[in-house]
Structure formats: C-alpha cells, structure tokens
C-alpha cells in the first residue's frame, strides 16, 4: 500500500450503563480523503477526535463519514461532526437512511427496549442521570445522509472501498472491504470474542438468521485482517475462519 494511503482501527473506551465498553471505529485515508467509518456513542465526539489525533491524523481533513448502520453506538457522534464540519459527506445504505435521519424511529429503540435499558442501570445511579439516559434513548441523534450506496458498489478513493450489504444486524447494515490493505471492516456483522472471530450476537440482531447468511458474502474477498466494531482486530488466517463461520451458518 502506498505510503500516502492508510487504514487505522481506533479504540474508544468509556463507561456505558455502569460498565466499561470499548468500540472500534475506523479511519481510512489517502492524499485527498480522510474517511471515518462510524462515529461512536452520543457524547463521545471528544474521545473520537482524540483517537484520530493520536493516530497522527488531523480531523480537519475529514471529508466523508460512512455509517455502517443505524444503531446508537454508530451514529452517536454524527450530529457533533456535522456541526463542526458541515461539508463532510455522510454515506449510508438507503435502507437505514430514514432511521439515521430521524424520519423513522431506530428499530431497536422500542418503548419496551428503552424501559428495559433504563431499568438495567446499576443501583446507585442518580435519578438525574437516569432521566438524561432515558431522554437520549427517546431522542437519539440524527443527521442528514448525503449519499446512499448499494451492494458491491466501489468508492474510488483510498485505494478502493467496496460496499458489502450485510443485512441481519439491521436491515441496511453495511460492511466494507478496503482493497489496498485487504481489510474487511465488518462493523457488527462479525465480532471478536476472547481473540476469536465469531458470528454476531443474536441478542443484538434484528434478524439473526439473515445476519448469519450475510457472512457468506465475505467468501468473495481476499482478507488479510478484519476490524470488528466490537472486539477489534482479527488477523489470523481470516479467510479460513470466515469459511468456517459461513459453513456453520449454512448448516444452522
């Protein structure tokens, strides 16, 4: 890969619902573009900016944000980014676009799910904090999507970024393949648990059967490493491991 191109997994850790949660947005760049994939939880924009700076990059260069899907931990920082960098292009799937824009309620934030999330907060959390948390869930961040992309579409930037529609976690979930580095940005289509690449957690999937089927799409790519939003980097014989997961999903 040329020296003026690169890809970097970010790590952002914070207390979420009483426990430390680490998530992994990704930045991809070349001479002309700096692209961020996913934007972390609401309120984490300063952590995101610091992570990009620690990677030796300037957020002032940010040109595009690709949102893999509509979930809160992926869209949370989007309004803050657009407020500070209004010319940044926001890219997502047409299916998840209305949810990201606030035209439709986020699929997983039903009234029952919100009540369950608030009730599951640890004992001792102040009522004021509970109210603020509930307000965030009832009024999630939203921002306009400038460009929609489709399966197998290639963005001709940063050495080539191929869009892979991997529905299941959400209906419009996207994964990305960065050709120059042979990196699969799986978002939530895969996870890493205790150092092992695994299928997504059914607890968090809108349609787990479909999410399992989507894994088979990764068989079409020569993958050197996988970045999972939850669990981080996996770089040990990726194609073999993905083939194992795809075979298991086909048998289930």
Low-confidence stretches: none
Strand portion? 25-35%
- Main beta sheet: strand number and arrangement? 6 strands, mixed
In DSSP terms, counting alpha (H) and pi (I) runs of 4 or more, how many helices?
8
Question: Oligomeric status of the shown chains?
Answer: single chain
Task: Outline the structure in words.
By secondary structure, the chain is of the alpha/beta class. It is 27% helix and 25% strand. The chain has eight helices and 16 strands. It has helices at 45-54, 72-75, 78-84, 97-100, 111-119, 127-138, 208-214, 238-251; strands at 6-9, 12-16, 19-23, 26-29, 34-37, 64-66, 89-93, 147-149, 154-155, 161-165, 174-178, 183-187, 191-193, 196-198, 225-228, 232-234. The strands form four sheets. It has a six-stranded mixed beta sheet with strand order 1-4-5-6-7-8, with no helix packed on it. A hairpin with a 5-residue loop joins strand 9 (154-155) and strand 10 (161-165). The longest helix is centred in the C-terminal third of the chain and has 14 residues, at 238-251. The termini are far apart. The relative contact order is 0.14. The model has no long low-confidence stretch (mean pLDDT 93).
């Amino acid at each position: 890969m040329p020296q003026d191109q690169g890809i970097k997994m970010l790590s952002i850790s914070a207390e979420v619902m009483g426990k430390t949660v680490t998530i992994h947005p990704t930045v991809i760049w070349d001479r002309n573009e700096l692209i961020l994939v996913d934007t972390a939880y609401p309120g984490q924009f300063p952590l995101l900016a610091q992570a990009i700076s620690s990677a030796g990059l300037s957020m002032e260069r940010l040109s595009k944000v690709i949102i893999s899907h509509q979930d809160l931990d992926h869209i949370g920082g989007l309004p803050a980014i657009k407020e500070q960098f209004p010319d940044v292009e926001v890219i997502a799937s047409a299916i998840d676009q209305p949810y990201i824009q606030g035209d439709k309620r986020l699929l997983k934030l039903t009234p029952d799910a919100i009540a369950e999330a608030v009730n599951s907060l640890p004992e001792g959390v102040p009522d004021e904090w509970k109210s603020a948390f509930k307000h965030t869930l009832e009024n999630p961040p939203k921002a306009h999507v400038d460009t929609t992309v489709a399966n197998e579409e290639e963005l001709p930037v940063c050495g080539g970024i191929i869009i892979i529609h991997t529905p299941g976690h959400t209906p419009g979930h996207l994964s990305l393949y960065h050709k120059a580095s042979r990196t699969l940005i799986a978002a939530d289509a895969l996870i890493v648990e205790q150092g092992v690449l695994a299928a997504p957690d059914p607890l968090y999937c809108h349609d787990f059967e479909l999410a399992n089927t989507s894994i088979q799409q990764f068989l079409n790519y020569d993958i050197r490493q996988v970045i999972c939003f939850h669990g981080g980097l996996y770089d040990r014989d990726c194609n073999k491991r993905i083939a194992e997961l795809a075979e298991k999903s086909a048998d289930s």
